[in-house]
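Troubleshooting log. The previous run stalled partway through. Resubmitting the same two chains, unchanged.
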Amino acid sequence: MELHAIAIRAACAWVFLLFLLRISGKEAVSQLSGRTLVLALIISDLIDDFVLGVVPAATFIAAAGGLVLVRSLVSLAAVYSPRVYALVEGDASPLMTAGRLHHRSMRRERLNATELEELLRLQGVDRGQWPELLMVRLEREGRASAIRHKWARPIQRGDVETGERGGS
Amino acid sequence: MTQVFRIVAVIALAMAIAAASVFGLRDSYIMTPPPESVAESMFDRLAAKRFDQALDVWCSDAAQQPDVQTLRALRARIVDSIGEFALTDTKRVKMANGLSMVTGSLRGERGDTLTFYLPLILRRGQWRVRDVEISYLEVPVSAR
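Second attempt completed without errors. Output:
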């Protein structure tokens, strides 16, 4: 098989996918949400069939274009309906409330205490600071978010001016 | 909603470019699978006993349009000669005026190889195997 034909097909696929992703919204490229990950997995499997000349260009365009179109329609539906959003992306899971671990949620997310410790360290919270945490959640894209008790938050200029400080 | 229309427009534009390349510029190996790729698909499907799918790459208006039984018999002939087989390589011998000839080898489980020649014809922008009788098998001496 001619190498130049492979190069031309690869370039065509790249231009086509680049255009499709550019117009399908920033969300498609800025974060790896569930629907974007599925899209990336399927398209990465489709592209080699076209580049190696196994399927015609029309088949690749229909398959990849159809997928991007469906993803955009689902994203559009998710913007208007929180129910659709929860269906395609799932919910954030509470992992800790007021220093108490939610073992059931952690089991559901296949997360042990060591991994949670690691996720929180990435947020700048080591194990000794866990009592300062009001809530820890595993967000939809797989990162942990931590909210501190009011008394544990770093002091702000506004706190001094309004005198709102202390207590949880 | 504008975004959805834009995606549809890009898909339509890409389809139009592919169609113009195949039907307008008579491209027969870039936007459409080259003949050797079609031959590979045919023998891969034959090896996997996917006869219905193997029929898809045959020319529908061929003089002797094969059916599943014909392909089953073709596979049986190959298996009788060299055992269960896999495609090893294909090469385009010639390609001109909407006709092409592909040659390649099938390696059998016993180590023997068969050489095949497959004539193809360009139909509606895609290469199709032309005639089951013209494609023949050269059985090596060791397999006779």
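Takeaways: The beta strands of chain B are 85-96, 99-108, 113-123, 126-129, 136-138. Residues 2-24 of chain B form the longest helix (23 residues).
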